[in-house]
Design a protein that fits this description.
The chain is of the alpha+beta class. It has one domain. The protein has 2 helices and 5 strands. The strands form 2 sheets. It has a 3-stranded antiparallel sheet with strand order 1-3-2, with helices on one face. The radius of gyration is 13 Å and the shape is globular. It binds iron/sulfur cluster (2 copies). One iron/sulfur cluster binds next to loops.
Length: 88
């Protein structure tokens, strides 16, 4: 697994539980996928620490950033939301 440095994981926010595609357009909405009877929606939300696809606080980035995509559920969801990620 090799990160391609696309920066997408630092530019989006994932919301679980609602099909925003059916709910109509929401600000910054990108897409909704369904995994195991649950909806996951991706929204544009760029981290303030990102500059040109590089993390400016890489050495002290939060644990959730270090581990992303952590767990079987998030790994499967991220695979569906961003199949081009080099870390899956
Ligand atoms: S972990 Fe995946 S989505 Fe994030 S920068 Fe690397 S290749 Fe892109
Ligand atoms: S802190 Fe760094 S690794 Fe975490 S989301 Fe922001 S830019 Fe990405």
């Amino acid at each position: 697994m090799t990160c391609k440095g696309c920066g997408l994981c630092c530019k989006v926010w994932i919301v679980k539980g609602k099909d925003f595609k059916l709910a109509g357009m929401r600000k910054n909405f990108i897409k909704t996928i369904k995994f195991e009877d649950c909806y996951y929606s991706m929204f544009e939300s760029e981290c303030k620490h990102l500059r040109g696809n590089r993390c400016m606080v890489y050495d002290r980035r939060p644990e959730q950033c270090k581990k992303f995509p952590e767990g079987k559920e998030m790994l499967a969801v991220w695979k569906l939301l961003n199949p081009d990620c080099g870390m899956i």
